[in-house]
C-alpha cells in the first residue's frame, strides 16, 4: 500500500532548493492586494502607512531577534502555540519599536553566519541592558558567548542530526518537568570553546560539552533546536522559558485577538469608509469579516466575477457574505469583459497581465461609485510582512509580470487597513472559525487570482471555461468525499489544448485531454504530487469522461515542484 502523504512533517522542510518563482508564491488573496499596491505605485502614489494606535498595556510579547535561520518563523509559531504573542525582528530594530511590543523576553534565533565573520550580525545592546530573560538558539547561543566574553571556534566537523542531551543541572527552571536525558536535534558547525564568565554548563551531549549554558540571571543558550519536531521535549523547554523564566501570562488567544482588533479597527477607521476586494479566499474573507464586526456598513466589499471562478463559487461566496454575514457587498459581473480581453491570448504571462489590468479597471469603476473612500482593506499575513521586511521585496517584485497594470487614480488616496498582518495562516483560520465563517471557506485551498485562465492551456474561451468548471467540480467532489480536501495543498483539473481519439459505445470520439493535479505542500515553494488512492483516481476519471461531454481522456500529473510548478501555466 502506498502511503498517501509523502511530504515531510512540519519542522523538517524537504531537502529541495526552493525555486525563485516568477509567480505569486503566497496565498491566493495576495494577488488582489498586490494588483492594488502596484497600481498605486505606478501612479506615484505610495501606500500610506496606517497610523498604529497605541499598544494596549495588557499585551505581552516575546521578541525574536532573527539572524536568518530557516527555523526562525517556526520558533515564532511555537511560542504562539503557547498562547504568548511573539514577533520576529531584525537585529538592527530600534529599542523604541521593541518597547512598544511590551517585551517579556528575547529569543536569539539561529542563522547561517559565523560569529567571527567580519559582518556577523550581533544582538543589539538593549537585549542585555534590558535585563529581560534571553534564550539563544544555536547561532544565537554563539552570539551570547561572543558578546559576553566567551570563545567560539570553527568546529572541525559539523554536528547535524539527532543527539542525546544529558542534563547536568536538573534544578534549572528551563528543565522543569523534563527527564535527565532526551533526544535533541543539532545543526551547527561552530562550537563553544569557552563559556562566558559567570555562566555554567547546564547540559551536554557526547560531541558538545556545552550544549546548554546559563548565567543564573535569566540568560540561556541552547546549541540544539527546540522548535523542530525532532526535539520532542522542545515544546516543554520553550514553555519553561516563556512561563517560568519570562513569567508570561499567556493571553495570546484568538478571542483576545478578535476583541483587540475590533477596538483597533474602530479607533483607526473612525467615521471613515473602507473598501475591500473580496476573492472568496481565506485571507480577504477573514479580514473583511473582522472589519465588518468593527465598523459594520462603513465597509463595502467588491467581488469581481471575472468568469474564471469555479462552479458555484460566485453564488456561494456572494450569498455567504450578503445573506449569512449581512455585509455590504457589490458583485460585479464582468465575465464578458474579461473574456473579450483574453481573446486570442495564449501566453500565460500575458493572460496574467491582462487579467490584472482589467481587474484594476473594474475595481476602480466600482470604487468610484461608492464616493469618498478612506481605507483599502487587505488580507496581508505575517509571513508576507516578514518576507518583505527581511528581503526588501516590495509588492512590485512579487508579481513581476504585473508591473504594467494601469493603476488607481491619484485622487483615491487610501490608507491601508491590514488587520491580519500579525497572524500566521493557521491563526487566520482560527479567527475565521471563531467569527462564524463556514468551514468550507476557512479551509479553502489556495486558488490563483487569474483563476481558471491559467488552468486552460492555450486560448481561454467561455466553452473551455465551462468544460473545465465541470471537470474541476468532479475532482473537488470526489476529493471531498474521500475526506482528503484539507490534507492536500491543492487539487484541481487542467484543461489541456490536446485532443485525442476515444471510443464511447459504438462511436469514435475526438475530445479534450484533462489532467488532474493534486499536491501536498507546506508553503507552495516546494510540493510533492499526492499519492492518491487508485480507486479514487478511477472514480474521478470515470465520472469526468461520462459526465462531461467533450472530454474523453484523463491523466494524472506525477511531477513534483521543483522541477514542475503547481499550476501548469
Ligand atoms: P506555482 O504554479 O508557481 O504556484 O507552483 C505556487 C502557488 O501560487 C499560486 N499561483 C498564483 N496565485 N496568482 C495567484 O494569486 C497567480 O498568478 C498565481 N500563479 C500561481 C498557485 O495556485 C500555488 O498555490
Based on secondary structure, the structural category is alpha/beta
User: Which small-molecule species are bound to the chains here?
Assistant: xanthosine-5'-monophosphate
The total count of strands amounts to 20
* C-alpha Rg (nearest Å): 26 Å
**Fraction of residues in β-strands:** 15-25%
- Helix coverage percent: 25-40%
| Contiguous runs where pLDDT drops below 50 for at least 5 residues | 1-31, 38-51, 391-406
Average pLDDT figure: 86
Q: How far apart are the first and last residues' alpha carbons, in Å?
A: 32 Å
Q: Order the strands across the largest sheet as they lie in space.
A: 2-1-3-4-11-10-9-6-7
Shape: globular
Number of helices: 17
> Mind summarizing the main beta sheet?
9 strands, mixed
Describe this structure in words.
This protein is an alpha/beta fold and 569 residues long. It contains 17 helices and 20 strands. It has a 9-stranded mixed sheet, sandwiched between helices. Helix 8 links the parallel strand 12 and strand 13. The radius of gyration is 26 Å and the shape is globular. The N terminus is likely disordered. The chain binds xanthosine-5'-monophosphate. The site of xanthosine-5'-monophosphate has 17 residues, from loops.
What topology does this entry show?
Blueprint (H helix, E strand, L loop, with lengths): L29 H13 L18 E6 L5 H10 L3 E6 L4 H5 L3 E6 L17 H4 L4 E4 L1 H9 L3 E3 L5 E9 L13 E8 L2 E4 L5 E5 L7 E3 L4 E4 L11 H12 L8 H16 L4 E5 L3 H14 L3 E7 L7 H12 L3 E6 L1 H8 L5 H23 L4 E3 L4 H10 L3 H4 L16 E3 L7 H10 L4 H4 L19 H20 L8 E15 L2 E14 L7 E2 L4 H14 L3 E6 L13
Parallel strand pairs: 1-2, 1-3, 3-4, 4-11, 12-13, 12-15, 13-14, 15-16, 18-20
Antiparallel strand pairs: 5-8, 6-7, 6-9, 9-10, 10-11, 17-18, 18-19
Helix pairs in contact: 1-11, 7-8, 7-14, 8-14, 10-11, 16-17
The structure holds xanthosine-5'-monophosphate.
The site of xanthosine-5'-monophosphate has 17 residues, from loops.
